[in-house]
Every structure is written in structure tokens, then in C-alpha cells.
Fold these 2 entries.
Entry 1:
Amino acid sequence: MSSFALAWQFLTILPWWKSDREVTPRLLGQSMAFYPAIGLLLGLILWVTHRVISPAFPRALGDGLIVTLLVILTGALHLDGLADTLDGLAAGKAPEERLRIMRDHRVGTFGVVGLILILGLKFLALNSLPNDVSGRALVVALILSRWSMVQLTYCAPYARQEGGLGLPFKENLRKREMVIATITSLAFSFFFFRFWGAMLWLGVGIFTLLFQAFFGKKIGGITGDILGAANETSEVLALILTSGMLRVGWAF
């Protein structure tokens, strides 16, 4: 299996052609170089779908269907991580307790509220954008949110001493993959929005550094759940920043 195919299969539920190549820990790290590219492809799928269904539905309903399709295509993987992270932060008083709660498969009140808020904000931010901007904004949001996971994995320590789902990625992500993901995410963002795309890239990058610092204090690093939470919040942030830029008159 190629590293691109592995990234595709990990980040989406969509099929890819099979390979006899063994999935090794090193391949997991290499696959992260393609996370922004997977975000690009997912975004293009959603953009095309939106263009196809828009004549048949009111704008708000069409945007709601696109947000729903995004959840389906990603298998709600990152939303699950967000819910677990919020439950751990809300109920845990110490790093060890927070990590233990995050491993609980049950979703608590804060997790449910967080999911409602993040999906609602995602819909509202997308719906606030003009038709000629919304598709590109969604593509860029998916690119940058996947890049944020690579940035966090490379820069932050892993919090669980006993290991976890994210540890093989952390241990096998090299500088080469980080550089590839960073350059491609910036290039894609610039392609769709030129200078303002680079500003969105910078905004998500700064947010990810703050995200890293916050969880460094709370639990001593990151976990797989926190990577999912970073993806969801960065995705919404990119859409909100795009809407805000338009609101103050910055043209795309």
C-alpha cells in the first residue's frame, strides 16, 4: 500500500485499490505528508456535489447536506476525537484523569454540546459565504485542517506513556513529511485565494501552535483524540476567518 493510499483510507471511508504492501509504522508517518492533498480531494468532491445539488435545493438546505456528507465521508472520525477531548477537559481535574476520561467510549454532556456547536458553526460559516466563494473556502478549510494535524503531530509530545492510536504516527513522522505537508497546504491555499489564502494558512498555523500550548499544559501533549479535535476546530476556524475577511471588505 502506498503512503497516499494509506492516508486516503485513514481519513475517509471511500475505497481505494488494494495493495499487497505491508502497512508498517514508518508508512504511517510517511502518509501524513499527503494529509493536505486528501483534504483537497475531499473538498473538491464536496464542491462538485454542492454545484450539482444547488439547483434542486434552497441554499441553506444544500449547505446542510454538504456538512452532512462531510461527516459521512470522514466516518465522523475527527468528531469522535473532539467529543472525547471535550469530555476529558470538562470532567477531568488532573492530566491522568483527563486522559482516562478521553479513552471512555461513552460521550458525555460536554461532548454532545461540543458536537452540536461545531457542526452548527460549520454550517453557519459556510452558509454565510457567497456562492462564488463557499466552494473554494470549504476546500481550503479541509486542506488546512488536515495540515494542522500534521503540524501538531510533528511539534507536540505524545501524552500517553502507554501509547495509543496516534503514537505510531508521532514516532514515524519525519521532517520531510512535515515540510511536504506544509508547502503543499500553503501552495493549495494560495492557488484558491492568493494572498488571502496565505493569510488563512498563517491563521490556522498560529491557532495550531496555541492549541499545542494549551494541551501541553492540560495533559502534557497530544493524543489521537486531540488531533481529531484540532482538525475540527481548524476547519471551522478557516471558514469563520474567510467569512470575517469578506465581512470587513477584503475581496477574494
Note: Residues 32-241 form one domain.
Entry 2:
Amino acid sequence: MKALLALEDGTVFEGKSFGAPGERSGELIFNTSMTGYQEILTDPSYKGQIVTMTYPLIGNYGINPWDFESKRPFVEGFVVKECSRIFSNWRGRITLDEFLKKHKIPGIEGIDTRALTCHIRSAGAMKAVLSTEDLDKKSLVEKAKNSPGLIGKDLVREVTCKKAYKWENKGTIPVHKVVVLDCGVKHNILNSLVAAGCEVTVVPASTGAKEILEQKPDGILLSNGPGDPAAVPYVISTVRELVSAVSSSLSPVIFGICLGHQMLGLALGGKTYKLKFGHHGGNHPVKDLKTGKIAITAQNHGFCVDIDTLNKNDVEITHINLYDNTLEGIRHKRLPIFSVQYHPESSPGPHDAGYLFTEFVKMMES
């Protein structure tokens, strides 16, 4: 079946449909990871986005029940050079094509993903429509132009849990109690906390600071999530109250990841802005300014905290991205609060930043 991918600037790519038929709009971005497409598809941070994989062959190890990062896929559409209809992996259960059909997500293959990626790098991420139904190019371009986009849109409400729950403890003895503010948390963040010796309770993004603190946690994790951090003022307000609580007699450690890092930056008085084409992939070099060490990191964000807007009397810059010198980590100078823009849980990899969960635990012990 024929499929079209139309961008708001008038560029149109023609290919073949796989996955579900239909029509979806979203922000078109690219991901440079060579593996991990199942984790990408099920990462709630991709809500509202159509994802292009730069690696040419996708689907060759199938889909399995163990590598989900959430209960279901959240991408709006999937773009690849070639979708493998045959998979070869002992853990695989169904094909990528079958998986997308099951969850009613359209895909397009057979287009020049190199040209598409170069176009996005030059023009920036933009709104797009993927369709097997409307094959009129002008019509699709207009639909892309008129689609809502991500700026100012609260996508956290669409991915957060409905009620609080405890994450399964797989045999470890928990030492520290951690509350995770769920803005679209990945399963492997929760698994990493459990492996580090934490009892994990996940609460909805709408949960207030008072309710979180009533649980008397040793630590609070501000999770990853989709979209514009400035579009979730209720979470920023909660984080601001949590920071105030840390500065008083209450002293839980606060750790922010990705969107959690951005919301912490906003709560501390900073501002955020939209990156030209975002950071999406598993090969981003990040420098630790204290040690000088370089970590190769997994990343997925389209917004960034503006370094120049942070109060340097309170906030220390700890990490920067070596691709574009954007902010990758901060730490409060007096309080047990820190955050990173990248993903230390990094499933399926790289694992250079996994030590941050150990650091979180050590801070709770001190």
C-alpha cells in the first residue's frame, strides 16, 4: 500500500506502508540509534512525534515481551528505510509490522531516510503528517501546517499513570524509599532504582508536593516525559514546593532525568527553549565538568534549559553536550538536588551513565 509523509514546509516523501493503515500527525524527528527500536517505540517521551530511524534496517530482531519501556507504544508514526518482515532472535515473538498493526500505528518504508535526516538537520524538526488514506500531496502539506505541534501542549497528562502504584521488587532488599513523579517514566528507570536498593512508588504527575512528602521518602525522582516542559506549570509548581521542602527541615534527595531535569531548571528560576532538531539517539558525548570524563549517553529531548538563565549562586553546571555545548546536568550548591538531561538507565545502552543511580542512593545515605 502506498504511503506519503508530508512536511509543513512542503516537502513530501513517497513510500510503502507497513504497520497499520491510517493517518497521523506529529513532530517529525530522527533517532540515530542502531538498536533499541522497541524501547524507542514504547518510550512515552515520544508522544506527539513521528520517529525516523537513521539506521537503514529496522525490525530484524522482532518484538519481545521484556523490552517494553511502558505499557504500549506512544509514537505517532514510524519511518524507516527498510522494515524487516523476518526476524532472527530467540527472544522475538512477533514482527515489527505485526506490532504496529496491533497498536494501530502507521509506518512508512522505502524512502531515503538519509535525505530526510539531512533535511531535518538543515531545516529543523517540523510538523508532519503520515498517511495511507489521503494521497493528495497539497492536502497533506496543509494538514501538516495546521497540526498543533508540541510547543505549549501538555502531553504529560496523556502518558502519566492514573493512580499511584508500587513498582515490582525483583528479589532485592530495599533500603531507601523513593517516590517517582510520573511524567512518562520508562520502566528501566524504575528497574534501575530497584537494582540500586530502592523501594519505588510511582505517583501521577498531578500529585501535589504535600501528598508526596507525606509518604516520607528518602528520595524523589522527577521522571522523563514528552513535549514542552513549560506546558506543565502544575508540575513545575510541585517541583518548586519540593525544592522548598528540601531547604527546610525535610530533606529528601531530588534527582531529575530529561523532562524532570528541565522542570527542575524551571523551578529553580531558569528558562527553556526548543532545540533546532533535538537530541535523539544513543551516541551523544557528554562531559563531566568536575572530572573531565566523557560519557557516551542515550538522549531523547527536543527542549533544553538555557544555561544563561540559571542563578549561578544556587546552581552549578555539572555536564555539557560536546556536540553543541548545551546543558546536560546541574546540581544545587547547597541542597541535595541534581539532574541530568540524558538517560542514565539507557536501555538498551550505552551504560556509561548508570553510576548516577548509585550516586542518588549515596546521597540518600549521607
Note: Residues 2-146 form a domain with the Glucose Oxidase; domain 1 fold (CATH 3.50.30.20).
